[in-house]
Amino acid sequence: MTPHDLITLALKQAGVVGVGQTPLAEDVNDALTHLNMMLGQWNRKRWLIYHLVEATVPAYGAASYRIGPGMDIDVPGRVTGIASAFYRLARVSETNDDFSLDFSSDFGPPHTIGAGAIDIPLAVLTSREDYSRIGMKGLGTYPSAVWLDADYPVGNLYVWPSPSVGEIHVVVQEQLGRITDLTADIDLPDEYHDALFQNLVVRLRSAYGRSRDPVVEVLAKTALNTIRSANAQIGTLGMPGNMPLGRFGGDMNSYWAGGGVMPAREIVDRTVNVPVLTPVDEPDTIKPVPGTF
Question: What's the whole-model pTM score?
Fold first, then answer.
């Protein structure tokens, strides 16, 4: 299906043109604008992206690297989020039952990584506030975290600490892309065609002053849900290795321990003395007598 075919069908479904009528060029251009605006919105929704791509930059001691088309980290379009990241070390050689890192010629220009390299996961900071709390931003050693400053049109990836060897790998969403050629086939998986069509109809009915059609809206939502279920990728939940086990293991305010804040009656049962309770019966207002735990 070409964009022109999809737009013509959507204009008919929206009641803008009748059967056997040819849409005006102005209507087609307006519909194409709506279609590209919709794709721009979809590019920011992880569950509407069917593929993640990995981009790489050789580390050379910089605190940040530009990310975008033709930049240090070369990706097809603007990046607004990092799905995951890792740092790739040089090959590992075994000597005397100990592992030693070989950073010899592998890390001079051209930058290459030998066989047997190891990947170290990096934490992805999600806000400037988190990055601002780092005290020694100029620290130069193996990295542990990255933060994306999603500037426009080119973003900046901050790496902390700043390594001078190895590679920084980031996983980002592949862009769906703008439609510019009305006669070329739509280069998207088949399930996207109906979602584009139904949701474009919803937009066109609103743009041309048509009343809402509940059936069309249900079809549009169903088509998006089909894409969402196909693209869903849920990462495995990880927990700290020293997390206490048991229902109320460790701190009573530990939600991971198996139930969150301890009920007031159980606090009473587990204390030698009766705790002092405030009039407000919220768990975080319970004040045990000092020395009872």
Answer: 0.68
pLDDT of residue 235: 77
What is the CB neighbour count within 10 angstroms for residue 153? 9
Closest-CA residue to 57 (of 47, 66, 49): 66
Residue from 154, 174, 167, 173 nearest 66 by CA: 154
Could you tell me if residue 61 is left (phi over 0), alpha (psi between -120 and 50 degrees) or otherwise beta?
left
Neighbours of 124 (CB within 10 A): 17
CB 52 within 8 A of CB 83: yes
Please determine, for residue 268, whether its predicted confidence score (pLDDT) is greater than 70: no
Distances (CA, A) of 172 to 18, 74, 75, 78, 131: 43, 11, 9, 10, 20
> In the chain, what are the domain boundaries?
3-47+189-231, 52-173, 245-293
